């Protein structure tokens, strides 16, 4: 699978759930390519904005879409890495704020 195929697949699955790709498509494709690199490296697509351990069970919470996406998008309009955003976020409403790390410190490598 390449980044374009991944984009089309995820868009088809995630948009009906209210999760959209960031309108900066160049940035989106950088993240999608990083997800594919992580899939090749670890066997699963971990969040490209976090360090994975390589242990699927330990990394389960950061397999994209991560466990924190729903709360991040609800509160900030985007997930931690800004791959997934709300429709309003793409229209610059609300103002874009950095999303704090929700992953518990003991899970961070």
Radius of gyration: 13 Å
Strand fraction: under 5%
Biggest sheet overview: 2 strands, antiparallel
Mean pLDDT: 96
| Structural class by helix and strand composition | mainly alpha
**Rough outline:** globular
Helix content: 40-55%
Could you spell the SSE succession in H and E letters?
HEHHHEH
What low-confidence regions span 5 or more consecutive residues with pLDDT below 50? none
What does it look like?
42% of the residues lie in helices and 4% in strands. The protein has a two-stranded antiparallel ribbon with strand order 1-2. The mean pLDDT is 96. It is globular and about 35 Å long. The chain has 5 helices and 2 strands, in the order αβαααβα. It has 109 residues and is mainly alpha-helical. α1 packs across α2 (25-42).
Q: What's the gist of this structure?
A:
Helix content is 42%, strand content 4%. With 109 residues, it is mostly helical.
Kindly list the characteristics that best describe this protein.
109 residues, 5 helices
Layout of SSEs?
Layout: H1 3-14, E1 20-21, H2 25-42, H3 56-59, H4 69-76, E2 84-85, H5 87-90
Antiparallel strand pairs: 1-2
Helix pairs in contact: 1-2
